[in-house]
Write a structure and sequence with these properties.
With 408 residues, the chain is of the alpha+beta class. Strand 1 and strand 2 form a beta hairpin. The two termini are 42 Å apart. Helix 5 packs antiparallel against helix 6 and helix 8 packs antiparallel against helix 9. The strands form 3 sheets. Strands 6-8-9-11-10 form a 5-stranded mixed beta sheet. The chain has a 4-stranded antiparallel beta sheet with strand order 2-1-4-3, sandwiched between helices. The chain has 9 helices and 11 strands.
Length: 408
């Protein structure tokens, strides 16, 4: 039977689709932010011009008020002055003394605090270029009128509260948009992982189902061979391989469903895996175990946990290219059992320490990249533990660590 497509291509297809959607969202966010900033810039500029125009009219009204005589109609002047209820303004004389102020809200305990606050505000408004001087008379050449000219009012002001809020609004809008995009990307990533999990679970269960028929046939053929050749030494060895196939099918069938955890001796499980790997690996591969002298009781699904350790050992042998040393250690700390599987292989670059657990990640030409992904699922989802790359150096080897709770 030949696969219509290579399942190794599935993670790449998911990644490409996810990246395309992510890039479209980021570009859309940048476009919206740019349009918002440009529009707000022009809107703010127009409003600032409007404020400047209003303050020039207000200053002219103040000049008219201060130079008014008995023939001056003050109704319009007072209306212009009193209509300013939003723009903060301070009026000073030529000596810099504050004569009056409007639309400034502040608290002070003493008059000195009030004066200091107003002087600081005047300095701030002047630094923004918001200052208008109004003279009582028009300039002339006479010395007397020059003295009068020296008497003037200075009006300093700043943008209204609405204008200040409007200046902040584009950045607030961008922040909200960024948060929305991040949430959307996180949702897409979660959807991608869920889709991947469904495919991997379906693949493993289908594999277990497909293995069932040939295993049953092999068991039947083994019985026939036993009857016809009862003393043949090869038949028991065939039986061991059939049992191995049954174990593999059982492991695949358990992926995707919650396995039953039983209290097992961790040492026995590790030794069982070591015996199996040792018999089927090169004599140039040395496996060293450093395990506690007493039994280590942990609630486990033995077939699945054996699969994890076996997968780590096989990956280690591949990384060492069939020559080197694997060291398996286990010890207990408060509430945890720690298992380290170290090899002397080619190592893993630090930026790939997390990637090795992603479905489809593999450095082998014929690998599917499922082993470590399923190992992570078995340890973290089924046994509520952790598996991660504890340490790795290029050319010197890698150490994988498994952490399991003593009581699940």
């Amino acid at each position: 039977m030949r696969l219509i497509y290579d399942v190794r291509d599935l993670p790449m297809q998911w990644t490409d689709r996810y990246r395309s959607i992510r890039n479209i969202l980021i570009l859309a966010a940048i476009l919206i932010a740019a349009v918002s900033l440009v529009f707000s810039h022009y809107l703010l500029r127009d409003m600032q011009r409007d404020v400047s125009s209003k303050m020039n009219i207000w200053a002219e009204a103040m000049r008219t008020l201060n130079t008014a005589d008995e023939n001056t109609d003050l109704n319009l002047v007072l209306k212009v002055i009193n209509d300013n209820t939003t723009i903060p303004v301070i009026v000073l004389n030529e000596k810099g003394d504050v004569l009056q102020f409007r639309n400034l809200k502040f608290r002070y305990t003493t008059p000195e605090d009030s004066i200091d606050y107003l002087q600081n505000k005047v300095h701030e408004m002047r630094s923004q270029g918001h200052s208008i001087k109004i003279y009582y008379t028009e300039p002339s050449d006479s010395l007397q009128s020059h003295k009068v000219k020296d008497e003037y009012l200075e009006i300093v002001y700043e943008d209204s509260l609405t204008l200040k809020r409007l200046a902040i609004y584009p950045y607030l809008q961008i922040a909200i948009l960024a948060i929305f995009i991040l949430i959307l990307i996180f949702a897409l990533l979660s959807l991608k992982r869920a889709e991947q999990n469904r495919v991997w679970v379906g693949l493993t269960k289908e594999t277990a189902h497909q293995l069932g028929t040939p295993i049953s046939s092999l068991i039947a053929w083994q019985e026939i061979l036993k009857d016809n050749h009862p003393n043949d030494a090869i038949i028991p060895e065939m039986g061991k391989d059939i049992e191995r196939l049954k174990l593999i099918a059982e492991r695949f069938s358990k992926v995707g469903s919650r396995p039953e955890l039983k209290e097992e001796d961790l040492k026995e499980i590790i030794w069982h895996v070591v015996d199996y790997i040792s018999m089927r690996s090169s004599s140039k591969v040395k496996i060293i175990c450093s395990l506690p002298a007493t039994p280590v009781k942990v609630k486990l699904s033995a077939p699945l946990f054996e699969w994890v350790v076996e997968n780590l050992c096989k990956n280690a042998i591949d990384a060492m290219q069939g020559k080197g040393q694997i060291t398996i250690t286990a010890h207990e700390i408060t509430g945890l059992v720690i298992i380290d599987v170290a090899d002397t292989g080619k190592g893993i670059a630090k930026n790939h320490w997390k990637s090795v657990f992603m479905p489809g990640y593999t450095t082998k030409e014929r690998g599917w990249g499922l082993g470590l992904s399923l190992a992570k699922r078995i340890i973290e989802e089924y046994h509520h533990g952790r598996i991660y790359v504890r340490n790795s150096e290029i050319g010197r080897g890698t150490t994988f660590r498994i952490e399991l709770r003593v009581k699940n």
